[in-house]
Amino acid sequence: MLLYPYRxxxxxxxxxxxxxxxxxxxxxxxxxxxxxxxxxxxxxxHFCTVLFFDENRLCLRLAKGRFTVYGSGLRICTLTAARLxxxxxxxxxxxxxx
Length: 98
Prior knowledge:
This protein is of the alpha+beta class. It contains one helix and six strands, in the order αββββββ.
């Protein structure tokens, strides 16, 4: 008779762990900036404004700071309200919370 409550508790604990894997992310998770780099292309999502751009530097204002990409031969391939694609040779990136 003592085994039944233990088995029930173990099953309940496993169910909670399984449900925790598929819970919703915190509010605002999908609107956070994201940077993807693949070869000579970089995609930046969820930025606010392009502050500065030339062939050696790209500076973006994010919701909570500034993101700068340094490189050579930079050019903007696509620009939409939510995503920017840059192509070129990337040297470094900086983030500041100004």
